[in-house]
Structure formats: C-alpha cells, structure tokens
Design brief:
disordered N terminus; elongated; alpha+beta; 381 residues; five-stranded antiparallel beta sheet
Length: 381
C-alpha cells in the first residue's frame, strides 16, 4: 500500500489577513509588569536615569534639555533615545542581560519599538501589549497629578525657593492638567455597520479640548457673558441658559461614560439615535461616510447651542413684542446674537476662517475672501 499523503491545511483567514502587518515575536518575553509597577513608585518619571546621574557630577546638559525618554518594558529602565547625544536606551539594550530587553515604550507618543526587529511594534487595545501600555498611561497620569501637589525640596529636605515666573507656572500647570486628564482607551459596540460612526467617536473622545468644554453643558443654572465691541457702547450681557439640546446632551453623556474607568466597552446607542433623528440618511444599517457623519454631528450640536444662546439673550434683554418691532431693538438683538453665537463649544473647538486671495491679472487688484471652515464643510456636501 502506498503512503498516504499528508494533508496540508491552509492557514486560517485571520492569519493571512494579519500577515500584512509585521508581527513582533519578542513582546511575549520582553514584558514584565511586576518590575514596571516597582518603577512607577519611584519619584522621577519620564527622565533619563543615566543623564540624571551624570549631571550630578558634571554640568553636561542644559536645564531645558529634555530628550525623548524610552521605558524598557522588561526592567523599567528609562533612557534617552538613539537620536540624543548619549543614546542611553540603546546602550541599555546592548548590555549583556540574562533575558532580552529589546522592547521599549516612548513616554511621549506611547509608541512601542523593538530593537531586535528594529521596527515599531503595532498593538491593539485588547491585546496583551495594548493593555500593558494602557495601564502605564493611567498610572503615569495619576503620578503626574500627585507629583504636582508636592512642594519641591533640595537634597537637605529644606524648601527650595521658587524662582520661576508666573508664565512658567501656568505652562507647567497646563502640562500636568493635560497629562492627568488622559482619556482611557475603550471599545465601541458595532450597532450594525456603524464602523464609520465609531471611528469618528473614537477621535472625538480623545480631543481633550472638546472634553473640557462640553463638561460646561450643565443641565441647569448655566450662565454665560456676551461681550460686544466697545465701539457699539452696548455693554456686557449676562445670560442664563436653558437645558442643552438632545444631541448635545447625548454627546456630553457619551464623553462622560468614556471617562469611566470601570467600563471597557461602550454602546453608543443613544448618541447614534440622536444623530439619526437629525439626519435620517444614517438609518438602515448601511455603510456611510465618516466625514459626512462628522459634518451632520457638528452642525446639529452647533444649531442646538446657537438656539439655546439666542433664547438666553432674548430672556436677558426682556424685550416685549412691541419693543421687538422697534428697529433699534432688533439691531441690538442681532448684535448680541452674532457675538453670542460664536461662544458655542463647536465653534470654539472646530471653528476657524480660511482666507482665499484673488488678484486681477490686469489691474492687480487683490481681494481677500474669508470662508468659515464649518460652512466650507457644509458646502462640500
């Protein structure tokens, strides 16, 4: 009898699809969470350990010199990158170790690099490396917030005189605030061909300016001051705002849920429902364009906020129906509405002006035509 030919099974579809992205095989042995936890307890963070040691004996670096720092994910060593003068992270990898120390994490961009592969290591949110990086991000943010509250002391333990200027204090405060408010990375449930929607929501969730401004959308007792040009002699107007619109409220709740560290996966059904109410074209579980969805989302929230601010201005002016028939009263109302409409959070984050320059070839007359960026987005569709 002849020998049976061995049946060669074809690789699964998932393996063939993943072959497009280079997979690093060194991450499994290049991670040590327990050692990283110990390093997180140290006082100094995002600072090259070797550069700090050298500067104690010789003034080698300038005070404002801060090279990119890479964290060894095996032992927690922090060293400056290969493009710095000393390349301490690379030298640490080249040292003789019992186990490989080839996988490092950039503490500025949170990218991962493998020295053995000499290439960037791609990771997903739910895989081992992604969860490893997310844990470090969260602990680093908490550490920065706690460190900011501690007074700086010298080696003898005595208080150190603070010679920094007020501007430097504000800049440091902004850096600490942004670091301590890192938005967690979460998954979004697919509601039925809603990848286009989830992609936009993931980007907006990481827009920290939007997160800060939308928290001011209080359900009650919200106030706002409308400032007019001094040349009009109208003065400032303090207005009281009603509850935000349903789309803006759903967006605010969605971003609040993103800040909840207990939830790893969110189902943005309420927000998607409100978007569909504004634009029925997104119903039906069909694939849609992400840019088009962003346009409808921003336009819907902007419209709600402008109406909300306009209603507050009308209440603050307390104009009767007879006064509104007066030409002067209508002009005053329009001035406040024009200035107040620009105070909505959509314009503050995404607004801007694009200026087109047109010159006549014969008379050389130049015209500047300003175009609102949000209106330009509408014109593209």
């Amino acid at each position: 009898m002849g020998k049976k030919k061995e049946r060669q099974n074809s690789p699964p579809a998932s393996e063939t699809s993943d072959s497009c992205v280079p997979q690093c095989v060194h991450t499994r042995k290049g991670l040590n969470l327990n050692q990283i936890k110990k390093q997180l307890l140290q006082h100094c963070w995002n600072t090259c350990e070797d550069c700090k040691t050298n500067t104690k004996t010789e003034d080698k670096h300038k005070p404002d010199d801060h090279p990119t720092v890479w964290l060894c994910l095996k032992c927690g060593h922090q060293g400056c990158g290969r493009y710095s003068e000393d390349q301490h992270a690379l030298k640490h990898y080249e040292k003789q170790h019992s186990e490989s120390h080839c996988v490092v994490l950039n503490l500025d961009s949170w990218s991962v690099w493998c020295y053995l592969c000499d290439d960037e290591v791609h990771y997903e949110v739910n895989d081992q490396l992604g969860q490893f990086v997310t844990y470090i991000q969260k602990k680093t943010a908490d550490k920065c917030a706690n460190t900011a509250a501690l007074p700086e002391t010298n080696e003898n333990g005595k208080g150190k005189e603070d010679n920094t200027t007020e501007t430097e204090k504000q800049e440091k405060g902004k850096t600490v605030t942004q670091s301590s408010q890192l938005t967690p990375v979460k998954g979004l449930s697919n509601l039925g061909n809603t990848c286009f929607f989830n992609a936009v929501m993931q980007i907006l969730s990481q827009t920290y300016v939007l997160n800060e401004l939308i928290q001011d959308l209080k359900t009650n007792e919200a106030t706002m001051t409308v400032v007019t040009p001094d040349s009009l002699n109208l003065g400032h107007l303090e207005i009281h705002l009603d509850q935000p619109g349903p789309l803006s409220s759903a967006m605010r709740q969605f971003l609040l849920d993103f800040q909840d560290t207990k939830k790893n996966v969110l189902t943005p059904k309420e927000l998607f429902t409100q978007v569909c109410k504004k634009a029925a074209r997104f119903k039906g579980f069909q694939q849609q364009d992400s840019q088009e969805l962003l346009r409808y989302l921003l336009d819907g929230m902007r419209t709600e906020e402008i109406k909300r601010i306009g209603a507050g201005i009308l209440k603050a002016l307390n104009y009767s129906s007879e006064m509104m028939e007066n030409e002067e009263s209508r002009k005053t109302m329009k001035v406040y509405e024009k200035e107040g409409s620009m105070l909505n959070f959509v314009d503050q984050v995404f607004g801007g002006t694009l200026t087109s320059t047109i010159m006549c070839e014969e008379c050389k007359t130049v015209r500047l035509i300003p175009v609102d960026l949000l209106k330009r987005m509408d014109a593209e569709y």
